[in-house]
UniProtKB/TrEMBL annotation, chain B:
Organism: Microvirga terricola
Upper taxonomic lineage: Bacteria, Pseudomonadati, Pseudomonadota, Alphaproteobacteria, Hyphomicrobiales
InterPro entries the record matches: ABC3_permease_C, MacB_PCD, Macrolide_Exporter_MacB
A UniProt-annotated Pfam family: FtsX
Location in the cell: Cell membrane
Designated name of the protein: FtsX-like permease family protein
Length: 241, 410
C-alpha cells in the first residue's frame, strides 16, 4: 500500500468569470520514505495539489487515500484529525505564532492531539533538538533568524510523528545558503524515514529530491526519478571556498 | 485544548493588546460598577431605615408644638410650646392603637460629678418614654411612678456620660450636680450606639419630667405643664395614619383651634421619614440600573467588535491552527473563552470600582454601605454571560474560516 494514492483527482473553481480547472485528472502514488519535489510554473496547480493531499481541501471529483484512509468521506473534524496525526506542514512564511516561544509553537499540534503538558514539553524539546535548535527553545519567533524560524516550523511539523511532511516553497523566503541548510535538514530527515513532498518553482531546489513531478495547467506533465544532489556536500564545498 | 490552558492563552492574547483590551472592557467595567453601586446603595438605604426604626423604636409618631416646617426637625422648640403632658394623657386615653405617649422636654446641660464635668443632652421624661423608644436600663432601675409623679431629683445616665463621669466606677447611688441641683443616679441606660446620622445616642441623661421642668430646663415649661414634644407609639403600622388623623382632631379640640385656623402643633410619622431616605435611594438605584443596562449592552457590543477585529487580525493564526489539527470547535471555544475572559476581567474591575463608588456615596450621604457577596457573584457572572453572548458571533466566524483562505491571508 502506498502512502499517497490519488485517482483522477480534479479540482475546479467556479468563478463569475468562468470555470478554472486548477487540477485535472491527477493520478499518482507516493511510497513511504520517498522525497518528492512538485514543480511547475506559477498557476500550474502545485498548491492546489498540495492542499488536496494535505487534507485542507476536498476534490471536485476523484479519489484520494492517505495511509489507507479515504479522505473524501471525512467531515471537517475527521480531516482535522487526519491532518493532526498524519501530516506535518511547512510553509513559505513559516507561520509561527508570534506571541509564544519556539517550544510553545512546536507543542501546538500536540495540544490538539490531547497530549498532556509534560509529554508535550519532552517531545517538543526532542523535536527542537532534531532540527538543531534545542538551546533556542525559549526564544520567540521575532528573536530568531529566518532559517531558525523555518527550523522551528519543521520541528512543529515533525512533532506528532506524521507519515507525511508537506512543504510549500519552504525555502522561498530564505537566502540561498540558508535554503541549502534547510534542504540538508530535509534530506537528513528523509534518510531517517520521513516521507517528504516539497513544492517549489525553483529547479535548484527540486534537484535535491529523489523524484520529480512537473505540473502544467493542472496536469501532470512529467514524473521521473532522479539522483538527488546532496545538500551537505554543497555546504562543505561552499565553506571550503 | 484544556480549559486552563485556553484561559492562559486568552490572557496572553489580551495582554498582547493591553490598552485596546482595557478600552474594550470599559463598558463592562462601568456597567458592573453601576450594578454593584446600585445594590450597595439600595441595601445601604434599606439598612438605614432599619437602623433608624431600630434606634427610634418602631411605629412611632412625634407631636411637636407650633407649625413646624416640613423636613426640619425642631424637636423641643422652646418658648411658645403649646403642648402639655395633659395632651399626652389625652392621646394615651382616647386614640385607638396607641401603646405609649411619651411627653418630654429636652435641653443641654453640664453635669458635674466630683471633679469631673461633662456637657450633654438632658431629657425630662415620664414612664412611657421607655416603652416608646424601646429602650431600657442596663444597670440599676428606671423611675418608679411615684418618683415621676413627685418630680424627684433622680437621674438615669447614658453609657457615654457614665463612662466620662465615673470611668470604671459604679455610678449607681452616686450624686451628680446639674445646674447645682444634686441628682441621685438610679440607673444607667443600655448602650444604643450611633444614630443613623452619626450622633452618639448614649451621650444623654434622663430625669423625671417635673424634675427637669422645674429645676433644670427652664421657666416656660414649669408654668403650664407644657412639654417640648410627645413621642406616640402605636401597636401596629396600620394604626399610625388613622391615629395621626384622630390626634389632629383631638388636639385641635383641646387647643380650641377652630375652622380653617392652622394647627398649633404638627405630627409626623417617623417611619415615613425613614422611608423617604429609602425612596430617594430607590430613585438613585433606578438611575444606576439604567446606566448598568446601557453600559453592559455597549460593553457587549464593544467586545463583539474587538473580537471581530481580533479574528480578522489573526486569520493566519487560525489557518495555522486548523492546519495543525484544530477542529472548528477548538477555534470556536478559543475565541469564546477569550471574549469571556475579557468581559470577566472587566467585571472584576467593575466590582472594584463599584465598591469604591458605593463606599464614597455612603460616606457622603452618611449611609451604611453594603457590598454583598451575592451582588459580586451575580455581577461577575453576568459579565461572563455578556462575553459568551457577544463573543459567540465572532467566535463562530473564526470557526467557519476555510483553512486555505485563512493561511493565504496577509
Ligand atoms: N481559491 C481559488 N479560487 C479560484 N481560483 C483559484 C483558487 N486557488 C487557485 N486558483 C486557480 O487555480 C490555478 C492553480 O493555482 P495554484 O494551485 O495556486 O497554482 P501554483 O501553486 O502552481 O502557482 C490558478 O489558475 C489559480 O488562479
Ligand atoms: Mg502556489
Amino acid at each position: 500500500m502506498s502512502l499517497i494514492e490519488t485517482h483522477e483527482l480534479r479540482r475546479v473553481y467556479d468563478l463569475d468569470s468562468g470555470r478554472v480547472v486548477a487540477l485535472d485528472h491527477a493520478s499518482l502514488s507516493v511510497e513511504k520514505g520517498d522525497f518528492v519535489a512538485v514543480m511547475g510554473p506559477s498557476g500550474s496547480g502545485k498548491s492546489t495539489f498540495m492542499n488536496l493531499i494535505g487534507c485542507l481541501d476536498k476534490p471536485t471529483s476523484g479519489h484520494y487515500r492517505l495511509a489507507g484512509t479515504a479522505v473524501e468521506s471525512l467531515d471537517a473534524n475527521g480531516l482535522a484529525r487526519l491532518r493532526n496525526r498524519e501530516i506535518g506542514f511547512v510553509f513559505q512564511q513559516f507561520n509561527l505564532l508570534p506571541r509564544i516561544d519556539a517550544l510553545g509553537n512546536v507543542e501546538l499540534p500536540m495540544v490538539y492531539a490531547g497530549v498532556d503538558k509534560k509529554t508535550r514539553r519532552e517531545r517538543a524539546l526532542h523535536a527542537l533538538g532534531r532540527v538543531g535548535l534545542a538551546e533556542r527553545a525559549h526564544h520567540r519567533p521575532m528573536q530568531l533568524s529566518g532559517g531558525q524560524q523555518q527550523r522551528v516550523a519543521i520541528a512543529r511539523a515533525l512533532v506528532n510523528s506524521p507519515s507525511l511532511l508537506l512543504a510549500d516553497e519552504p525555502t522561498g523566503a530564505l537566502d540561498s545558503r540558508t535554503a541549502i541548510e534547510i534542504l540538508a535538514l530535509f534530506q537528513e530527515l528523509n534518510r531517517e524515514g520521513v516521507t517528504i513532498v516539497l513544492v517549489t518553482h525553483d529547479a535548484d531546489v527540486g534537484r535535491h529530491a529523489r523524484r520529480l513531478i512537473r505540473f502544467k495547467d493542472g496536469k501532470i506533465l512529467e514524473d521521473h526519478r532522479q539522483t538527488p544532489l546532496d545538500a551537505r556536500e554543497l555546504l562543505v564545498a561552499e565553506t571550503a571556498a | 485544548m484544556r480549559f486552563v490552558e485556553a484561559i492562559r492563552s486568552a490572557l496572553s492574547a489580551i495582554a498582547a493588546n493591553a490598552l485596546r483590551s482595557l478600552l474594550t472592557m470599559l463598558g463592562i467595567v462601568i456597567g458592573v460598577a453601576a450594578v454593584i453601586a446600585m445594590v450597595a446603595i439600595g441595601s445601604g438605604a434599606r439598612n438605614l431605615v432599619d437602623q433608624q426604626i431600630r434606634s427610634l423604636g418602631a411605629n412611632l409618631a412625634i407631636v411637636t408644638p407650633g407649625n413646624v416646617t416640613q423636613g426640619g426637625a425642631r424637636l423641643g422648640a422652646g418658648a411658645s410650646s403649646t403642648l402639655t403632658d395633659e395632651d399626652a394623657d389625652a392621646i394615651r386615653r382616647e386614640i385607638d392603637g396607641v401603646t405609649a405617649a411619651a411627653p418630654f422636654v429636652q435641653g443641654t446641660v453640664q453635669v458635674i460629678a466630683g471633679g469631673n464635668n461633662w456637657g450633654t443632652r438632658i431629657y425630662a421624661i415620664d414612664l412611657d418614654w421607655f416603652a416608646a423608644r424601646e429602650w431600657d436600663v442596663a444597670t440599676g432601675r428606671t423611675f418608679d411612678p411615684e418618683e415621676v409623679r413627685r418630680g424627684d431629683i433622680v437621674v438615669i445616665l447614658g453609657q457615654t456620660v457614665a463612662k466620662n463621669l465615673f470611668g470604671e466606677e459604679d455610678p449607681i447611688d452616686q450624686v451628680v450636680r446639674v445646674r447645682n441641683v444634686p441628682f441621685r443616679v438610679i440607673g444607667v441606660m443600655a448602650a444604643k450606639g450611633q444614630s443613623a446620622f452619626g450622633q452618639d445616642q448614649d451621650d444623654v441623661i434622663f430625669v423625671p419630667l417635673d424634675a427637669g421642668r422645674r429645676r433644670v430646663i427652664g421657666r416656660n415649661y414649669a408654668k403650664d405643664r407644657s412639654v417640648g414634644s410627645i413621642f406616640v407609639k402605636f401597636a401596629n403600622e396600620e394604626d399610625i395614619e388613622p391615629g395621626i388623623e384622630n390626634m389632629t382632631t383631638l388636639l385641635r379640640q383641646r387647643h380650641r383651634v377652630i375652622g380653617d385656623q392652622e394647627d398649633d402643633f404638627s405630627i409626623r410619622n417617623l417611619t415615613e421619614i425613614a422611608n423617604t431616605a429609602s425612596a430617594s435611594a430607590n430613585t438613585l438605584s433606578m438611575l444606576l440600573a439604567a446606566v448598568a443596562a446601557v453600559s453592559l449592552l455597549v460593553g457587549g457590543i464593544g467586545i463583539m467588535n474587538i473580537m471581530l477585529v481580533s479574528v480578522t487580525e489573526r486569520t493566519r493564526e487560525i489557518g495555522l491552527r486548523l492546519a495543525v489539527g484544530a477542529r472548528p470547535r477548538d477555534i470556536l471555544s478559543q475565541f469564546l473563552i477569550e471574549a469571556t475572559t475579557l468581559s470577566t476581567i472587566g467585571g472584576a474591575l467593575g466590582v472594584a470600582l463599584g465598591a469604591g463608588a458605593a463606599y464614597l456615596v455612603a460616606r457622603i450621604a452618611g449611609w451604611p454601605s453594603l457590598v454583598s457577596p451575592n451582588a459580586v457573584i451575580i455581577a461577575v457572572g453576568f459579565s461572563a454571560l455578556v462575553g459568551i453572548f457577544f463573543g459567540f458571533y465572532p467566535a463562530q466566524r473564526a470557526a467557519k474560516l476555510d483553512p486555505i483562505e485563512a493561511l493565504r491571508r496577509e
